[in-house]
Design brief:
globular, 5 helices, 34% helix, 6 strands, six-stranded antiparallel β-sheet, 186 residues
């Protein structure tokens, strides 16, 4: 009887441990943040932009890009790997219609070790920009940008593998500024 229990429990415990670790790793690597915490700002805002483009919508949209046009083919290649693009932007008639707590609810989601704060811009004119990046050992798997101004709050969350070299190839096209940045590997 003890042998039967031992033969059952050991594989069961191993399987359970594996599933817990796999679930934790999957959860830890999810670059999608919860933007619904900002929804309450919609009533205060004069203009609201809410973009939710999930993986299926990205695949569908990429079918309309022409593989024979170099620029469109490059965009298609970048977009085909993404899991989602999410944007919440609120324009207010008056200053300070949102609180620091509203912004902190987003930043708190980006405080895990999986996210790295890459850029922070602070201005006396109350324009604050933060860029966070999530990566695994080899790839960028998510980017979040928070742009907080006195009369506007915008959060952009891009989920999925992002190849900076391919993205840099698009500079100067599709409204992407030409920053003259070299992302090539040394």
């Amino acid at each position: 009887m003890t042998r039967i229990i031992h033969n059952f429990i050991k594989p069961f415990c191993s399987l359970t441990l594996f599933l817990i670790c796999a679930a934790a790793a999957a959860h830890a690597q999810n670059a999608k943040i919860n933007l619904e915490t900002l929804e309450r700002l919609s009533d205060k805002a004069s203009d609201v932009v809410d973009v939710t483009i999930d993986e299926n919508t990205l695949r569908l949209a990429s079918k309309f890009l022409n593989d024979k046009k170099i620029d469109e083919a490059k965009v298609k290649e970048i977009v085909s790997a993404l899991k989602g693009v999410y944007v919440k932007s609120f324009q207010f008639d008056g200053p300070d219609e949102y609180t620091k707590d509203d912004v902190e609810q987003i930043r708190s989601q980006l405080s895990s070790p999986a996210w790295a704060h890459m850029v922070g811009v602070r201005s006396k004119r109350h324009e604050n920009i933060d860029v966070y990046m999530m990566s695994d050992s080899n790839n960028i798997i998510g980017i979040t940008v928070i742009c907080a101004e006195r009369r506007q709050l915008t959060v952009v969350n891009i989920v999925g593998p992002i190849d900076l070299e391919k993205l840099a190839e698009l500079h100067g096209h599709f409204g992407i500024p030409d920053f003259d940045i070299d992302f090539s590997k040394p």
